[in-house]
Amino acid sequence: QVQLVESGGGVVRPGRSLRLSCAASGFTFGSYGMHWVRQAPGKGLEWVAVIWYDGSNKYYDDSVKGRFTISRDNSKNTLYLQMNSLTTEDTAVYYCARGRLLRGFIDYWGQGTLVSVSS
Amino acid sequence: EIVLTQSPGTLSLSPGERATLSCRASQSVNSNYLAWYQQKPGQAPRLLIYGASSRATDIPDRFSGSGSGTDFTLTISRLDPEDFAVYYCQQSGTSPPMYTFGQGTKLEIK
After folding, report:
1. Hey, are the CB atoms on B90 and A46 less than 8 Å from each other?
2. Confidence band of B95 (pLDDT split at 50, 70, 90)
3. A36 lies within 8 A of chain B by CB
4. Interacting residues of B36 by C-beta distance below 8 A, sequence separation 6+
């Protein structure tokens, strides 16, 4: 079965960096686009970024563009999110999710990892 | 940027009743790229509907989606106790493929 397991969350000071990882299993990772979606405490879902199955294309929400970088290592079945210049507004649970890019939806989600930006 | 507005914010109903949730877009959306998700407290979202009206795998047939253009609807024909949750609509563009979510509708037990 499809499994997505995020790691790397934690407490970080404003202005610092953090890298999230997502280990994928149960499907051919290199055949699917992947997303990061976040959810601030008590708030709704906010799409963050998407990467093509082969890493050839990457797109970001304006709120993270220039600060966050999505990447993947298909040999390790792993998705990453490098987050720089973090602010308190970035505090959220970050979900790794499998995308059906040609159909425009997300079909599987990980359980999420909490990032808390606080001084 | 397309904005999705869901209504109502909170819907209070009893098990067995019919639920109708609305998702309105600020401009026309390709219905092929409109999806609905369910999220229960402490859990990740789950895909319910894609392409505006196609049920995802293992989703009960009491869930149905409809709509086109700027107005989309998620209907739950007879509420089961496990259906009380928050529901989100989502759309994606094609060029660039940016995704946006509605703010959510909380379906609570009356």
Report:
1. no
2. confident
3. no
4. B23, B47, B48, B49, B65, B74, B87, B88, B89, B90
